[in-house]
Amino acid sequence: MNNQDKPGTILVPVDYSEQSIVALEQAVSLSKVFNSEIHILNVVSDEFSLSKLFDEVDKVEFEKRAKAKLAEFIEEKNAEYGVTLHPIQVHGKIYDQIVNTADVINAEFIVMGTAGSSTLKKRFIGSNALRVVRESHKAVITIKGKHHRKGCQNIVLPLDLTKETKEKVAKAVEFAKRFGSTIRVVSVLMTNDEFIVNRLTRQLDQVKKYITEQGVDCAAEIVRDTKGSQTLAESIIDYANKSKGDLIMIMTQQEQDFTDYFIGSAAQEVINFSDIPVLSIVPTLKKDTTSFTPY
């Protein structure tokens, strides 16, 4: 059995809301392509379960009901999707437990819903999604939109001169080969500086050549917004929508200083506002990879 045939693990946090169910549906499709097992995580927030409003008897009863609800949910979804879902129920801060559980079970992906920016303060699938993306050592797929095509025909891969890495391109190629996707590489040009234009053009040509040599269809395009009418994230989302993207792939830059995280700027906006699923990859390479060099 080669590595591609070994079952992986996908972690799906659920709070029984509509958006977390949509995320679960996407995880089921992903599991069939990646030959992965799905673990359903329900986090009982300490803020609620340990409330002073509950006495010990109430807490025991609450525990029983929570476990029964998860068991009922698993049984229903096992029958609906024709897959075996593995339940996990824990206590604690929601984003901490998602990150910790993903590490414990060595999840290949965390797939979770996000309500976007409009309800970030109140909904677990909103506020916690960004914390998970920022702190997780695992790749995270955030699902905001409710209607998605089956499969993954088009992967949108935004690149620029400072955040591009070989690792990001390699992950896109891996996904594309599994799904039979086309990779649509896009760079957003927000300047008329000829030097930057030429560098971006050369990089896109190199990336497109490399992806094509891997046997994957690739389109590459520079989107110009030199008037600054859109933010970087808006330009990426607009391109993804126009090109009928099924997945936007970004890479978070985990530095010690939070202000240096890609998640702190354009990526956060993409996750918040894109109805197209967003795959956030945590880089493992520590060296400078600002320019693309084929393997």
Shape: elongated
Tally the beta strands.
Answer: 10
- How would you spell out the order of helices and strands? EHEHHEHEHEEHEHEHEHE
Distance between the termini: 26 Å
Q: What is the CATH first-level class name of the largest domain?
A: Alpha Beta
Query: What is the fourth-level CATH superfamily of the largest domain?
Result: HUPs
**What's the pLDDT, averaged over the residues?**
83
Roughly how many Å is the radius of gyration?
20 Å
Kindly estimate the percentage of residues that lie in beta strands according to DSSP.
Answer: 15-25%
Q: Into which percent range does the helicity of residues fall? A: 40-55%
Query: How many distinct folded domains?
Result: 2
Strands of the widest sheet, in order across it, are 3-2-1-4-5-10-9-6-7-8
Briefly note the CATH topology name of the largest domain: Rossmann fold
Helix and strand content put the structural class at alpha/beta
- What is the number of helices? 9
Uncertain spans: 118-125, 254-264
In the CATH hierarchy, what is the architecture of the largest domain at level 2?
Answer: 3-Layer(aba) Sandwich
Biggest pleated-sheet summary: 10 strands, mixed
Describe the structure.
There is one protein chain. Helices cover 42% and strands 21% of the residues. Helix 1 links the parallel strand 1 and strand 2 (36-45). Strands 3-2-1-4-5-10-9-6-7-8 form a 10-stranded mixed sheet, with helices on both faces. The chain is an alpha/beta fold. The radius of gyration is 20 Å and the shape is elongated. The two termini are 26 Å apart. The chain folds into 2 domains: 3-143, HUPs (Rossmann fold); 154-247, HUPs (Rossmann fold), CATH 3.40.50.620. The chain has 9 helices and 10 strands.
